[in-house]
Request: fold
Amino acid sequence: MHSLLIATSNNSKFRELRQLLGNGFMRADVSVDEIQSLDTARIAKDKARKAYAAVGEPVIAEDTGLYVKELGGYPGAMIKWVERMPYGYERLCRFVDTCRSRAAYAETTLAFYDGKRLRAFTGTLHGRIALHPAGKGFGWDVIFIPKGSELTLGQMGQEAKNRISMRKEACVKLKRYLASNEFI
Reply:
């Protein structure tokens, strides 16, 4: 098996992806301009093309979104901008207080590009937005409670989170594709 590159400048994201994909995946510390969209697949595919152009080797790119159903899917893949606002995740929790439902889903898309083939693999996890941020972890883990749980992803711990996460689902699909096409 030869190493494949995961294009990300985010250490936390790389560590989590490597735990799910395995040791045969290395990091390409590539930061590319990101298109603005609510669609994780569209963003991940675009990032994979740009990362491939930067490194010249087959590459995997990732994008994640958090979709609040009552808000028409907002913030979706633009969740990173919520984090950067003053009181970001707490403010989103307060905003969701105005909704009839706290129902949400998390989505991760991994895109693989080898210069010829561009494929996207998406995983989804349904749940709800917490009343307040709780726990630790990266990104919005502190405000998303998966269906069937009373804990946020940030309260679960990495091992428990990895067993159920949308990122795991996307990784399983990607690994199946890579194995069937003899990349791994």
